[in-house]
């Protein structure tokens, strides 16, 4: 559809429209997802055009109850005689791979009153100064062994002002100025100024422009991509064949910088799905000369001065795309129209598009709990007492062999005693034996779930795909960013589980029990932790199932108040709420003998070291951790901090009042 809109827009003379219709076109383009530069480029052909006006108006288009749609542009075009051609752009998304296997379609037709002399005059006037030497090739061509016509040096000793004067003199005869060309071959021109002595790179006097050309994409898609990527194009020329030649402003001060900028430009385009001809990277390269014919087709100017106004301005745009950073927005923009919060996927715990970590020991049945969550979402049921929004869920199984995984789901349905009404809403991706690091898995996952309309993605467990040092805050920060990428690019909630660290966990805060860096607990929007309870003898003797274990669910929530701890049983294959209050205030394992865990000397060496590492990671947000920071976080004295450091075998040191890991201190 994008290609049709652009085709329709080109058929509407901006000078025909009053101001109201001109604004309507801008609103329609914004609603259709085009950048402001498309409206600005089209508006330049009118005498009423004022630089910067489009951008100001564009920012004021914030939507309305009756938005102006792209159909308005199509209707205006049809009223002026435009008819839609075959559309090849419907499936083209910003991140989509670009393929086309239909019939050839250019989507471009030069004006009926096309004048080749005028086209060449516009080209030379735009790219060259009057005293620049211009290189071009018309009849100085030869055929290679494959029968292809190849240009030679051609003319390189005429100044732009001489050529323009001749074009003015011979207004109806282009050949009188540049010489005759072979009708089936066409002609070429060099887009950078020369010194009048040759056509090599060393003969280029100013490195202002680079050539972008693709022979693999349909022409309409080339045009669409160049405009969407807002390339700073001085002149866009139809080659008379299967490509557009974009003469891009790079404005390099010298040859070395020219090469760097062209390399960046080509790499950027390839990453965005535009396969280009890399042989065009040298500054003395020939491009197609507008104004001549080739095999009965015209080589003509499609458009001029489109996209960003300069290389510098385009780099701001390009780097903004590459770093994927959103725009800055003033709070005042939302005071009258605050954004709607995502709906709650798990009531009171997790919103759609947010992240949740479930941590627990190896005996907690975490995989069963996650499978129960899948069922609760698919069937719109409660999970551990929390209502789930009905939806579609992907369970990424990294640990259990596929038959066992499938049978676990069947046993859960059987134990719940509910009909399997929505099992098509639970999709399994069994990756045992196929797991790769998460940064490699995420692109594959995102590609597979696109357009599958999932509401939640569950990854079980993460130790199978972890990258970097589990105890490194920076490594785990980068690792957790992959979950953000899943959420942002799919719109799904992401749930993952991790195991507890070694040792007793009862006296620790829920967020400090997960193994590894404290980043694990502080990164997700919701953390739920399962800790086993110590049962009294009378309860052990009266439980319904002698093999049942008792657990307490605690939380650390960013979007909601923390939940009242939930007690429940794990009776294979289900987790069942303690709705009778049998477990009451049963202590968590490791908390008997009240207060012993608050005494740092009662901890094992391993527990004390791990507690210290977690505290350090939690405080290490700026790379500057003081003794006071550690004292405040751990709620201990400075003497305890000094004692811990001495006992950790040189892993940490004190340096100018800072607590540092030894390897980081050596790097400084």
Please, could you describe this protein's structure?
The chain is α+β, with helices and mostly antiparallel strands. It has 4 domains: 2-79; 116-322, 2-Layer Sandwich (Alpha-Beta Plaits), CATH 3.30.70.1790; 344-577, P-loop containing nucleotide triphosphate hydrolases (Rossmann fold, 3-Layer(aba) Sandwich), CATH 3.40.50.300; 599-667, Arc Repressor Mutant, subunit A (Orthogonal Bundle). It is 33% helix and 19% strand. It has 21 helices and 28 strands. The strands form 8 sheets. Strands 19-18-20-21-15-22-23-24-25 form a 9-stranded mixed β-sheet, sandwiched between helices. The protein has a 4-stranded antiparallel β-sheet with strand order 4-1-5-9. Strands 6-8-7-12 form a 4-stranded antiparallel β-sheet, with helices on both faces. Strand 13 and strand 14 form a beta hairpin. The protein is elongated, with a radius of gyration of 34 Å.
List the helices and strands and how they pair.
Blueprint: H1 2-10, H2 19-31, H3 36-43, H4 53-60, H5 71-79, H6 116-127, E1 133-137, E2 141-143, E3 149-151, E4 155-159, H7 160-169, H8 175-178, E5 188-190, E6 207-212, H9 219-228, E7 233-238, E8 244-252, H10 255-271, E9 286-288, E10 293-294, E11 297-298, E12 300-306, H11 311-322, E13 344-346, E14 350-351, E15 355-360, H12 366-379, E16 382-383, E17 386-387, E18 393-397, H13 402-416, E19 426-430, H14 438-449, E20 456-460, H15 473-490, E21 493-499, H16 519-522, E22 526-532, H17 537-540, E23 549-557, E24 566-571, E25 574-577, H18 605-619, E26 625-626, H19 627-634, H20 638-647, E27 652-655, E28 658-661, H21 662-667
Parallel strand pairs: 15-21, 15-22, 18-19, 18-20, 20-21
Antiparallel strand pairs: 1-4, 1-5, 2-3, 5-9, 6-8, 7-8, 7-12, 10-11, 13-14, 16-17, 22-23, 23-24, 24-25, 26-28, 27-28
């Amino acid at each position: 559809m994008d290609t049709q809109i652009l085709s329709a827009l080109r058929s509407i003379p901006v000078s025909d429209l009053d101001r109201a219709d001109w604004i309507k076109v801008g609103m329609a383009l914004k609603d259709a997802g085009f950048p402001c530069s498309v409206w600005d480029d089209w508006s330049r052909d009118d005498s009423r055009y004022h630089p910067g006006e489009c951008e100001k108006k564009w920012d004021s288009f914030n939507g309305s109850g009756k938005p102006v749609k792209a159909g308005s542009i199509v209707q205006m075009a049809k009223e002026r005689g435009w008819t839609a051609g075959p559309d090849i752009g419907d499936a083209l998304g910003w991140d989509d791979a670009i393929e086309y296997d239909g019939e050839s379609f250019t989507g471009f037709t030069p004006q009926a009153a096309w004048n080749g002399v005028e086209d060449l005059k516009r080209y030379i006037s735009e790219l060259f100064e009057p005293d620049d030497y211009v290189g071009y090739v018309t009849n100085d061509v030869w055929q290679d062994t494959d029968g292809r016509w190849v240009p030679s040096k051609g003319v390189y000793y005429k100044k732009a002002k001489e050529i323009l004067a001749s074009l003015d003199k011979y207004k109806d005869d282009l050949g009188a100025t540049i010489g005759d060309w072979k009708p089936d071959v066409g002609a070429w021109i060099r887009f950078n100024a020369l010194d009048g002595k040759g056509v090599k790179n060393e003969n280029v006097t100013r490195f202002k422009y680079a050539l972008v050309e693709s022979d693999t994409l349909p022409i309409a898609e080339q045009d669409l991509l160049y405009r969407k990527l807002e390339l700073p194009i001085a002149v866009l020329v139809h080659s008379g064949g299967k490509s557009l030649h974009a003469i891009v402003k790079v404005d390099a001060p010298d040859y070395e910088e020219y090469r760097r900028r062209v390399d960046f430009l080509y790499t950027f385009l390839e990453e965005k799905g535009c396969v280009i001809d890399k042989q065009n990277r040298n500054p003395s390269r020939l491009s197609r000369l507008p104004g001549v014919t080739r095999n009965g087709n015209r080589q003509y100017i499609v458009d001029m001065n489109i996209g960003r106004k300069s290389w510098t301005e385009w780099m701001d745009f390009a780097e903004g795309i590459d770093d994927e950073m959103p725009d800055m927005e003033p709070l005042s923009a939302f005071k009258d129209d605050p954004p709607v919060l995502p709906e709650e996927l798990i009531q009171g715990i997790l919103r759609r598009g947010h992240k949740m970590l479930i941590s627990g020991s190896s005996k907690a049945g975490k995989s069963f709990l996650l499978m129960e969550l899948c069922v609760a979402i698919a069937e719109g049921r409660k999970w551990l007492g929390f209502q789930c929004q009905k939806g579609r869920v992907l369970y990424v199984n990294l640990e259990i062999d596929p038959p066992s995984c499938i049978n676990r789901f069947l046993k859960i349905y059987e134990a719940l005693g509910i009909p399997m009404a929505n099992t098509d809403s639970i999709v399994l991706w069994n990756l045992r034996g196929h797991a790769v690091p998460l940064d490699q898995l995420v692109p594959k996952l995102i590609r597979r779930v696109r357009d599958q309309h999932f509401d939640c993605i569950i990854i079980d467990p993460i130790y199978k795909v972890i990258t970097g040092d589990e105890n490194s805050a920076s490594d785990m920060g980068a690792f957790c960013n992959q979950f953000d990428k899943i959420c942002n690019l799919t719109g799904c909630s992401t749930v993952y589980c991790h195991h507890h660290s070694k040792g007793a966990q009862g006296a620790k805060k829920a967020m400090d029990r997960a193994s590894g860096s404290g980043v694990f607990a502080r990164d997700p929007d919701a953390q739920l932790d399962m800790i086993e309870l110590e049962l009294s003898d009378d309860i052990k003797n009266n439980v319904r199932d002698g093999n049942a274990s008792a657990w307490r669910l605690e939380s650390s929530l960013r979007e909601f108040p923390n939940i009242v701890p939930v007690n429940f049983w794990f009776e294979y294959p289900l987790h069942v709420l303690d709705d009778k209050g049998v477990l009451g205030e049963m202590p968590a394992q490791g908390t008997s003998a009240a207060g012993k865990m608050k005494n740092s000397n009662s901890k094992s060496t391993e527990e004390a070291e791990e507690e210290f590492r977690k505290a350090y990671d939690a405080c290490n947000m700026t790379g500057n951790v003081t003794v006071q920071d550690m004292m405040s976080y751990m709620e201990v004295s400075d003497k305890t901090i000094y004692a811990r450091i001495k006992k950790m075998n040189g892993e940490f040191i004190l340096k100018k009042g800072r607590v540092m890991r030894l390897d980081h201190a050596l790097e400084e």
